[in-house]
Amino acid sequence: MTPKRVTSVPGLFGGTDHYDENGSLIGYSTPGLLGGVNHYDANGAPVGYSTDSLLGGANHYDADGNPAGFSTPGLFGGTDYYDANGAHAGTGVPNLISGSTFYGDGDDAGIFGNDSFEDGQ
Q1: 119 vs 114, which has greater pLDDT?
Q2: d(CA 43, CA 100)
Q3: Max Cα separation, the chain?
């Protein structure tokens, strides 16, 4: 799979906007009504959601509610992301524009980069 970089920056109303390597909007995330984070593609279609986990990370699900992976706080800061099988999918690191950047492989950047894809969300 092709390595991907997704940059996430604060958006309007408490959300987060996600951009690809070329600066194109690929999606956004918003706080969930009852907690967690909802993820959408650039057209506003739901692509998944994330919920807090017990040890400071998050569990990630696709739009159908199937497990897509999980994230944990990184050893030296940032966030480590894993796919549904437990394989390391990428790393989120803080960047200089008060956002975060996800470095990962292939389509994993889609559900996690729409973390957002967010540090620990």
Answers
A1: 114
A2: 22
A3: 35
